[in-house]
Prior knowledge:
By secondary structure, this protein is mainly alpha-helical. The chain has helices at 2-26, 37-55, 66-105, 123-138, 142-155, 164-185, 187-206, 212-250, and strands spanning 111-114, 119-122. The chain has a two-stranded antiparallel sheet.
Amino acid sequence: MLSELLTTGVFTFMLLFVRIGTAIMVLPGFGEQYVPTSVRLGIAIAITLALAPVVGPTIPIEPSQPLSLALLIGAEMAIGLLIGGVARIIMSALHVAGTIIAFKSGLAYALTIDPAQGVQGALIASFLSFVGVVVIFATDMHYLLLAAIADSYTLFTPGAYPPLGDFTQFAVEVSSAAFRMGVQLSAPFIVFAMVVNIGLGVLARIMPALPIFFVIVPLQIWVGFLLLGLTLSGIVEFHTSYFEERMIELLSPV
């Protein structure tokens, strides 16, 4: 009796941990590369222990066949990856916006390691990505991410295989929407660069001997920083509202 109880408890904990651990691994803020692995593991275990008494009764019986067990674990991983991956893709809109801003402001050559994306990118893109993560915790929106993990057990019942086709379609829609959002956030800089390029073309025709690169580029950089200072709060606020809406939409019942 005791051995059966222990086996059931271990299986319940393992199945919960698969979904929660996968989500924590890729969630913005929790799954960043600069967060120690032990901290991420501790957070995943703590959330699993907190949800086990509530979600435990809904966990199916352990399958007797290894293939069925593997499919069950794979389904839980897919659900966790969807929750964390969607949040990560939405956050990438700031990286897209920062990259466009850097190109349009003449700062594309200022590269650094983006702590949120884990790749080398433009300095402004890394700055916006880091600001986005800070705003998530400053506005207590990280509780929304944790609530998304808990609510996923209501939307996606443990033991039921998720609709992979719908998952793929939703991921494509979120990716395209995130890229579109990044372009929209950087729209003032696109207009600014268009005006500057048109002016440079006219100036080059009027004064061919003028060293345009040495005269215009410093001015372009200064105006880019000024424009960033004027639009930074709006960019962050607009993206934060968009992030909240899409995460709520993800877990809304169809």
